[in-house]
Amino acid sequence: EADIYQTPRYLVIGTGKKITLECSQTMGHDKMYWYQQDPGMELHLIHYSYGVNSTEKGDLSSESTVSRIRTEHFPLTLESARPSHTSQYLCASSETRAGVGYNEQFFGPGTRLTVL
Amino acid sequence: GQQVMQIPQYQHVQEGEDFTTYCNSSTTLSNIQWYKQRPGGHPVFLIQLVKSGEVKKQKRLTFQFGEAKKNSSLHITATQTTDVGTYFCAGGSYGGATNKLIFGTGTLLAVQP
What we know:
Chain A is mostly beta strands. Chain A has strands spanning 4-7, 10-13, 19-25, 31-37, 43-51, 54-57, 65-66, 76-78, 87-94, 106-107, 111-115.
């Protein structure tokens, strides 16, 4: 069982509020990711990190920001939430193994965000 | 940009019938991974294929990676109600950021008992 946690699991918030979605993993993985997924749709990568102090934007443009100050922690922040941000946000992690380019990603349970 | 499409988008089968989902990339992939997401759940890794023409089996599931490394398929033999969920392929690109995957559009499988 993967040890990756997300809080809150559900969040209903008004327009204009600042929110932070938490993601933590206890597996010591160096790589972490944030995906956005609308119901029944594919996952879109919005942010990723190769390690501490390393963050990059993903393929889907997002108004959110991320930080990676500690290996195990990768929070996502929205400065001013809007209804268009309503979606499910999934956090994932993977480890780097010598000689292996791609490794499986372990996903957290997700945060379902609704902005009114 | 790179796109990964899956067909069909949705499949409804009777329990015991076979099921196949196909994954097609617009570019050559270095590898393909498959994930399963149960309704209301999160994606769970199933398998990774790396070699051209590779075939792997997991019990009733058979995974294939095309010779040109641009397509893949997942076949389930004799479906069970526990197979219900959305199946995603995810491709990694050559020369791209290591471990950055492009997820396919997914195939939702419904199994009627």
